[in-house]
Write a structure and sequence with these properties.
This protein is an alpha+beta fold. It has three domains: about 5-110, 2-Layer Sandwich (Beta-Lactamase), CATH 3.30.450.20; about 115-240, PAS domain (Beta-Lactamase, 2-Layer Sandwich); about 250-410, Alpha-Beta Plaits. The chain is built from 14 helices and 15 strands. The strands form three sheets. The protein has a five-stranded antiparallel β-sheet. It has a five-stranded antiparallel β-sheet with strand order 7-6-10-9-8, with helices on both faces. Strands 12-13-11-14-15 form a five-stranded mixed β-sheet, with helices on both faces. Strand 9 (about 210-220) and strand 10 (about 225-235) form a beta hairpin. This is Sensor domain-containing diguanylate cyclase.
C-alpha cells in the first residue's frame, strides 16, 4: 500500500534553513527538519522536547506563552536567543511565523554575522543607490558597525568610521543632533519597526552633506525590546539644493532677488498687524521704475539689466526694517513700518534723487533715475488693509506718471 506524502511536510523536512515547529499552547516541539537535526548532530547532541528545554533564557511554560502572545499579536517576528545544543550555548537568530495552533521557527546562527552578509541579504536593495551606506547598531553595547560604503560616503577609511552613537553624533550638525537623537530614542523605547530622519553630517573635508537615514529593527530580545537595528544613509544633498531653489523661487523674484508678490503680502500683513496693535504709523510706497516708458522700447536683455540696477539701488537705500518687493515687471512696493508720511517723503525723495556717483552707477546699468516715480499711501488715512493701501499707493503713482511728478502723496 502506497503512503501519500504531504508535499508541504516534505518541503519543510528538506528546507536548507534549520527549522522547527512548536505547539502554540504547550510549547512542545512538534517536528524538526533535517537541517535542524544536523545542527545538533554536529555537537553530538539531540534537541530537547520543548521550548523550555531548547531555549537557555526560558525557565517555564509561562515564558513560552508570553513569547507566543507577542508572536501572535505581531509584536515579534524576529529575535535573538541562546539555544542549548548539547553542552553549548549557541547565539542564534530566530524568525517566527504563527500558523494556527503552531509556530514555525527558522534558525540563523548570528555568532559570525557581519555586514557583508547583511549587504547580500536583508538590505541589498538599499545598496543599489551609489550614495547609500549600510550600518548595524547593537543597542545593548552601543556598537555601530559601518560598511565600506559608509566610509566612501563620508570620505573616511573604514577603520575611522563611527563606532558608537557618541562618535556618530559628533559628525552630525549641531542643529540636527537633538532631532536625530529624539527620533531614534523613540524608535527604541516604543519598539517600533521602522524610522527615518534627515540631517546634515560632516565629511572628512569638514563640509556638511544632507543625508536621509532609514533604520529598521533587525532583531529583538525575547522580551520584545530591540537588540539590533540595521539601516542605511544616503546622500540627498542634490535634493535639498533643489528644494532650497524651489523655496527661493516661491519667495523671491528671480530677476531682482527681492520678495515676490506672494511673499510680500505675508510680510506686509504682519507689519500692518503690528502697527494696529501698537498704534504706530505705517506708510506704503509704489515705485514705478519706468514712468517715462523708456524701458518698454529696449531689448529684453537691456530692460532686465535696467530693472536689476534700479532694484539694487533702491534696496541699498532703504532701512533694515523696511520691506521691498517686486510686484510687477517694472514696479516695486515698499512698506515703511513706524514711518510717518513726512519721513517717508524724505526717504523716497533721497532715493529717487541719487548722488553723482550713484547716477553714474545707474547709467552704467542702463537705468535712469528720471524714470522713477513714487506714490505714497498712509495707514490708516488711506486704508486699513494691505489691499486698500496698495490701491491708494497705485492711484498716487499713476497721478504722478500722468502729471510727470516724482513723488505723490495720496
Amino acid at each position: 500500500m502506497n503512503t501519500v506524502i504531504d508535499p508541504f511536510e516534505l518541503a519543510f523536512k528538506h528546507m536548507p534553513t534549520p527549522a522547527f515547529i512548536i505547539e502554540s499552547q504547550t510549547g512542545k516541539l512538534h517536528s524538526i527538519n533535517h537541517s535542524f537535526a544536523l545542527l545538533f548532530e554536529s555537537f553530538n547532541a539531540t534537541p530537547g522536547d520543548s521550548w523550555v528545554e531548547l531555549c537557555e533564557e526560558a525557565n517555564s511554560l509561562e515564558d513560552w506563552q508570553d513569547l507566543y502572545k507577542k508572536i501572535h499579536n505581531g509584536h515579534i517576528d524576529r529575535c535573538e536567543n541562546l539555544l542549548r545544543i548539547g553542552n553549548k550555548q549557541v547565539n542564534t537568530q530566530l524568525e517566527f511565523q504563527a500558523m494556527g495552533g503552531f509556530v514555525l521557527a527558522c534558525v540563523y546562527n548570528t555568532d559570525h554575522m557581519d555586514l557583508v552578509d547583511a549587504e547580500n541579504t536583508l538590505l541589498k536593495f538599499a545598496l543599489t543607490e551609489s550614495s547609500a551606506g549600510l550600518w548595524i547598531w547593537e543597542t545593548d553595547s552601543d556598537l555601530i558597525s559601518c560598511s565600506q560604503s559608509i566610509g566612501a560616503l563620508l570620505g573616511l577609511p573604514q577603520d575611522k568610521t563611527p563606532r558608537s552613537t557618541t562618535e556618530w553624533h559628533a559628525l552630525v550638525h549641531p542643529d540636527d543632533v537633538k532631532k536625530l537623537s529624539t527620533v531614534v530614542t523613540e524608535h527604541v523605547n516604543h519598539c517600533q519597526n521602522y524610522y527615518e530622519a534627515e540631517y546634515r553630517i560632516r565629511k572628512s573635508d569638514d563640509e556638511y552633506m544632507w543625508v536621509k537615514e532609514r533604520g529598521r529593527t533587525y532583531t529583538k530580545h525575547i522580551d520584545g525590546s530591540i537588540k539590533k537595528i540595521i539601516g542605511f544613509v544616503e546622500d540627498i544633498s542634490p535634493q535639498k539644493t533643489l528644494e532650497e531653489h524651489l523655496r527661493n523661487q516661491a519667495t523671491f523674484d528671480e530677476l531682482t532677488g527681492l520678495l515676490n508678490r506672494g511673499a510680500a503680502v505675508t510680510h506686509f500683513k504682519k507689519q500692518l498687524g503690528l502697527a494696529k496693535r501698537q498704534y504706530t504709523p505705517l506708510t506704503m510706497a509704489k515705485i514705478n521704475l519706468d514712468a517715462t516708458n523708456r524701458l518698454a522700447a529696449l531689448p529684453m536683455e537691456i530692460r532686465n539689466l535696467a530693472i536689476q540696477t534700479s532694484a539694487r539701488h533702491i534696496y541699498k537705500k532703504v532701512r533694515e526694517a523696511d520691506v521691498l518687493a517686486r510686484v510687477e515687471p517694472d514696479k516695486l512696493l515698499l512698506l515703511l513700518p513706524n514711518t510717518s508720511i513726512r519721513d517717508a517723503q524724505t526717504l523716497l525723495t533721497n532715493i529717487i534723487n541719487p548722488t553723482d556717483n550713484e547716477i553714474t552707477t545707474l547709467i552704467e546699468g542702463k537705468s535712469d533715475p528720471l524714470d522713477f516715480c513714487v506714490g505714497i499711501a498712509a495707514f490708516p488715512e488711506d486704508g486699513e488693509t494691505i489691499e486698500e493701501l496698495a490701491q491708494s499707493a497705485n492711484e498716487a503713482v499713476e497721478i504722478g506718471r500722468q502729471k510727470q511728478l516724482r513723488v505723490v502723496i495720496n
